[in-house]
Design a protein that fits this description.
The complex is a heterodimer.
Chain A (H helix, E strand, L loop, with lengths): L2 E4 L4 E4 L4 E3 L1 E4 L6 E6 L5 E7 L5 E4 L2 E4 L9 E3 L8 E9 L4 E2 L5 E6 L1
Parallel strand pairs in A: 2-12
Antiparallel strand pairs in A: 1-4, 3-9, 5-6, 5-10, 7-8, 8-9, 10-11, 10-12
Chain B lengths: L4 E3 L2 E4 L5 E6 L6 E7 L5 E8 L2 E4 L8 E4 L6 E5 L8 E8 L7 E2 L3 E5 L1
Parallel strand pairs in B: 2-11
Antiparallel strand pairs in B: 1-3, 3-8, 4-5, 4-9, 5-6, 7-8, 9-10, 9-11
Classes of the chains: A mainly beta, B mainly beta.
Chain lengths: 112, 113
């Protein structure tokens, strides 16, 4: 069945460090891919998306490229801030393109 | 433009009671999804509805759980005879169409005592 694997957290970084959170997925066909972010006690916010191979999604300094060959969608940011501390979820749109498939998420902690 | 709204935000029920969770999708969205998040875990899909129709309920437990999205009013997730294992955060999302990005509400945190 459809699934997603993210690197385990927590990821702890200093402010202005480079961030990579790895994400690989298994899905039927070529689903749209999403990154969501969840701040403590809140719902999920859409961070970025890519809908086809080689698409690059970007938002607020975060980027991810849809790699069909490696079925990956790694999240990167060149310089993290304390305010980026949150849990990040990679999610392909699986199951007939109507349900998001979530992994356990990766917790990011950025300290000054 | 109001986002997805859920109420209540927090709900406490004793074992055996019923829990009713409400979700109003974003304006213009006719597709609603329910997900459940257990502590320290990702979200798990439960059910996908369009107005007056259940499209996919493959993630919904067979017993005690039901969902509806009537022609008028919010979508309702109903849990009958709650047990401690039902304690979780329940999130609703909506989208304008199939395959589109989903926008999430703030969630309802259910605690069963």
């Amino acid at each position: 069945g459809d699934s997603v694997t993210q690197m385990e957290g927590p990821v702890t970084l200093s402010e202005e460090a480079f961030l990579t959170i790895n994400c690989t997925y298994t899905a039927t066909g070529y689903p749209s891919l999403f990154w969501y972010v969840q701040y403590p006690g809140e719902g999920l916010q859409l961070l970025l998306k890519a809908t086809k191979a080689d698409d690059k999604g970007s938002n607020k300094g975060f980027e991810a490229t849809y790699r069909k060959e490696t079925t990956s969608f790694h999240l990167e940011k060149g310089s993290v801030q304390v305010s980026d501390s949150a849990v990040y979820f990679c999610a392909p749109l699986g199951g007939g393109y109507n349900k998001l498939i979530f992994g356990a998420g990766t917790r990011l902690a950025v300290h000054p | 433009n109001a986002g997805v709204m859920q109420n209540p935000r927090h709900l406490v029920r004793r074992r055996g009671q019923e829990a009713r969770l409400r979700c109003s999708p974003m304006k213009g969205h006719s597709h609603v999804y329910w997900y459940r998040q257990l502590p320290e875990e990702g979200l798990k899909f439960m059910v996908y509805l369009q107005k007056e129709n259940i499209i996919d309920e493959s993630g919904m437990p067979k017993e005690r759980f039901s969902a509806e999205f009537p022609k008028e009013g919010p979508s309702i997730l109903r849990i009958q005879q709650v047990v401690r294992g039902d304690s979780a955060a329940y999130f609703c999302a909506s989208s304008p169409g199939t395959g589109d990005e989903q926008y999430f509400g703030p969630g309802t945190r259910l605690t069963v005592t």
